[in-house]
Design a protein that fits this description.
The complex is a heterodimer of chains A (365) and B (338). Chain A is an alpha/beta fold and 365 residues long. Chain A is built from 14 helices and seven strands. Chain A folds into two domains: 325 residues, Thiamin diphosphate (ThDP)-binding fold, Pyr/PP domains (Rossmann fold, 3-Layer(aba) Sandwich), CATH 3.40.50; 29 residues, no CATH class. Chain A is 44% helix and 9% strand. Chain A has a five-stranded parallel beta sheet, sandwiched between helices. Chain A has a two-stranded antiparallel ribbon with strand order 4-5. The longest helix of chain A is centred in the N-terminal third of the chain and has 26 residues. The mean pLDDT of chain A is 96. Chain B is α/β, with parallel strands linked by helices and 338 residues long. Chain B contains 13 helices and 14 strands. A seven-stranded mixed beta sheet of chain B has the order 3-2-4-5-7-6-12, sandwiched between helices. A five-stranded mixed beta sheet of chain B has the order 9-11-10-13-14, sandwiched between helices. Chain B has a two-stranded antiparallel sheet with strand order 1-8. Chain B is globular and about 65 Å long. Chain B folds into two domains: 182 residues, Thiamin diphosphate (ThDP)-binding fold, Pyr/PP domains (Rossmann fold, 3-Layer(aba) Sandwich); 124 residues, Rossmann fold (3-Layer(aba) Sandwich), CATH 3.40.50.920. In chain B, helix 1 runs parallel beside helix 7 and helix 8 packs across helix 12. Classes of the chains: A alpha/beta (365), B alpha/beta (338). The structure holds thiamine diphosphate and magnesium ion (MG).
């Protein structure tokens, strides 16, 4: 009598004991891991350009908070390898379910940066069209988006589309019940969904050690029958390779996949947070030397895939992008208070119509 | 016209919706082969297959969250919460996503889904099986909150809910599941959302009720008629959208109003109705608007629930407090004349 309820073996599901890595912190190649293919050279060069642009966008957004143009901004500086690899691993017809921290990924996906920043600028909640971009609204109630991702994956599967869904989540979010419900549902439904945990070591001020006793967050997959992997989250080559495999697995009927990327949040939780209250400067400095951007740059240069001119061009493009964004964000935001009543229901109730009329007359006074 | 129970009417509504619209899906706990603990989904898996009506893992937030994702993906999920109090794990999904998705996305992502919740007491249920939780949902902008009181309404309001472009919390008074009456399944008709029904016409006072309290209000009206008091009974059918018009025109006619709800009274739906009535009918009122409600206590154990639930006597006692003797003659005469 078999004891298990499924045909997958435990070893197939378990993550590597040591996070998957292709490139060391100094930019030199390490012995490539088994079971994961190196991404194509052109894709790595493209990833580099996007990381440069992503970091510039991130810096610009933080600057916009200082000018009062954004109410708040949660920076992902230091997490660009994750942000960009997550997007590059997906096709255009795949869906992304991001969190508040993932603006760089959205911009890299091609969502209009002004529309991405609508939420933080305060003009509305979600500024882009999820239906056309296939990007769900950036989600703030932690982990709730992961179960939506499973539902979307199940919907796509039923419609016969071979699209997959990637749900982003932070390390702290993995403690929430919805994350576990999502993993369990995904496992049971064998939904084509990839759970991508960016373990940046903190949930606001709370360090990972207070969040879990698990040896790694990637081990949370096995209890739900989900194939899992852990990866050096500051090694773009590794993250892209593992996510590409995860997406392939999900797309070809293998079911869900959980990836934990070990990375680090270089800035405070948001511009409004003071990280010196809960972590030491030398910890941050240690992580500076693991910065994903110079690592990829050194690696690509070493392989002669990137020259000085390419680097300059990437930075020029990023500057131009930031300058356009600045100009657009400096325009005063146009809002219409009466729109507040437009999207509560498909058709406003009589009560909402009355309240709309009341506000309209208040605005006239 | 066919005689059936409310449970059968709900089952028929689900069956007809599954048949007419392939986007409709049913899922929840034990709704598959078992047919749900109240048998509302009886036979649906057999007729439509596991694909259309299926059991989920036991996790309510997951059920509702899955419905959100599937509705975003073009389906029309109709999910079952096994009991009122067991929907609480899903509250975050309901309040933060179900209710807000259309609004957050500026109308670009509507969520046409239905969350069915057997609710309220009167069936001798043990703790956590008898909550009246409608106020939580009614207080949340973006949700429609529906509760049938008749067998025919159970069928049609559920069809309306499934066809509605917005998320609907469909609250089924479980003690009425076995009530039997005529129902008229058949050709589609205009939605009854936002249209209260006058279940009994009367002259002297209006009883406003919904869901499980409607039959109680009707019994009270019958008893009052014996005493020469003519009570009108309004059944809200949908708490959201709320039909001010029907309630107001009834109270303007009768001049007196009692709101009947089974739920605990404090900050409940009845308080909202009482406020709305006095805001709109002040000059027509001959007495304060009164409420008949459950007490502000956790739902009682089975042997004590009869002390908690509003019954005919409590309603009649309250009607007695409508100051019929104090009424200035002039008001009385004016009403008689009109
Ligand atoms: C359900 C819920 N509880 C609390 C919060 C407040 N909150 C916002 S971000 C955050 C920390 C999340 O940490 P993590 O998941 O590691 O993601 P990170 O911010 O590091 O990207 C908290 C507690 C929230 N948004 N949602
Ligand atoms: Mg974190």
């Amino acid at each position: 009598m078999p004891v298990g309820t499924h045909d997958q073996t435990v070893d197939d599901l378990l993550p590597a004991v040591v996070p998957v890595r292709f490139v060391a912190e100094d930019g030199t190649a390490v012995e490539p891991p088994e079971g994961y293919a190196a991404p194509a050279d052109e894709q790595l060069v493209e990833a580099y350009r996007r990381m440069v642009l992503g970091r510039r966008f991130d810096r610009q957004a933080t600057a916009l908070t200082k000018q009062g143009r954004l109410a708040v901004y949660p920076s992902s500086r230091g997490q660009e390898a994750c942000q960009i690899a997550g997007v590059l691993a997906l096709r255009e017809d795949d869906w992304l379910f991001p969190t508040y921290r993932d603006s760089v990924a959205l911009v890299s996906r091609g969502v209009d940066p002004v529309e991405v920043l609508t939420l933080l600028r305060g003009g509305w909640h979600c500024g882009y069209d999820p239906a056309t971009t296939r990007v769900a609204p950036q989600c703030t109630p932690l982990a709730t988006q992961t179960i939506h991702a499973v539902g979307m994956a199940e919907a796509l599967r039923r419609k016969g589309e071979d699209s997959v869904v990637m749900a982003f989540i932070g390390d702290g979010g993995t403690s929430e019940g919805d994350f576990h419900e999502a993993l369990n549902y995904a496992g049971v439904l064998r939904a084509p969904v990839v759970f991508f945990v960016q373990n940046n070591k903190y949930a606001i001020s709370v360090p990972l050690a207070k969040q879990t006793a698990a040896p790694a967050l990637a081990y949370k997959g096995i209890g739900y029958g989900i194939r899992s992997e852990q990866v050096d989250g500051n090694d773009l080559v590794a993250v892209l390779s593992v996510l590409t495999e995860a997406v392939r697995h999900a797309r070809t009927g293998g079911g869900p996949f959980l990836v934990e990327a070990h990375t680090y949040r270089m800035d405070a939780h948001t511009n409004a947070d003071d990280a010196t209250r809960y972590r030491e400067d030398d910890e941050v400095e240690r992580w500076e030397s693991a910065d994903p951007l110079p690592r990829l740059e050194t690696y690509l240069r070493g392989r002669s895939l990137l020259g000085t001119e390419d680097i300059a061009a990437a930075h020029d493009a990023a500057e131009a992008f930031a300058s356009r964004l600045r100009d657009e964000m400096n325009l005063d935001l146009e809002t219409d208070p009466l729109e507040l009543f437009d999207h509560v229901f498909a058709d406003a109730t009589p009560q909402l119509r009355e309240q709309r009329a009341q506000l309209a007359s208040e605005l006239e006074d | 016209m066919t005689a059936m129970t409310m449970a059968q009417a709900l089952n028929a509504a689900l069956r007809d919706a599954l048949r007419e619209d392939e986007r409709v899906l049913i899922f929840g706990e034990d709704v598959g082969p078992l047919g749900g603990v109240f048998r509302i989904t009886d036979g649906l898996t057999k007729e439509f297959g596991e694909d259309r009506c299926f059991d989920t893992p036991l996790a309510e937030s997951g059920i509702v969250g899955l419905a959100v994702g599937m509705a975003m993906g073009g389906f029309r999920p109709v999910v079952e919460m096994q009991f009122d109090a067991f929907a609480y794990p899903a509250f975050e999904q309901i309040a933060s996503h179900v209710a807000k998705m259309r609004n957050r996305t500026r109308g670009r992502v509507p969520l046409p889904l239905v969350i069915r919740i057997p609710y309220a007491g009167g069936i001798g249920g043990v703790e956590h099986h008898c909550d009246s939780s409608e106020a939580y949902y009614a207080h949340t902008p973006g949700l429609k909150v529906v509760t049938p009181a008749t067998v025919d309404d159970a069928y049609w309001l559920l069809r309306d809910a499934i066809d509605d472009p917005d998320p609907v919390i469909f609250m089924e008074p479980k003690r009425l599941y076995w009530s039997k009456d005529e129902a008229t399944p058949g050709d589609r008709r205009a939605s009854s959302f936002g249209r209260a029904a006058v279940r009994r016409e009367g002259r002297d006072a209006t009883l406003v009720a919904y869901g499980p309290s409607v039959p109680v209000a009707l019994q009270a009206a019958e008893a009052a008629a014996g005493d020469g008091i003519s009570l009108e009974v309004v059944d809200l059918r949908t708490i959201v959208p709320f039909d001010d018009e029907t309630v107001v025109s009834s109270v303007r006619k009768t001049g007196r109003c009692v709101v009947v709800q089974e739920a605990q009274g404090f900050a409940g739906v009845g308080a909202e109705i009482a406020a709305r009535v006095q805001e709109r009918c002040f000059h027509s009122l001959a007495a304060p608007v009164l409420r008949v409600t459950g007490f502000d206590i956790p739902y009682p154990p089975p042997k004590l629930e009869h002390s908690h639930l509003p019954d005919v006597d409590r309603i009649l006692d309250t009607v007695d407090r409508l100051q019929f003797d104090d009424e200035p003659d002039v008001l009385h005469l004016a009403r008689e004349a009109s």
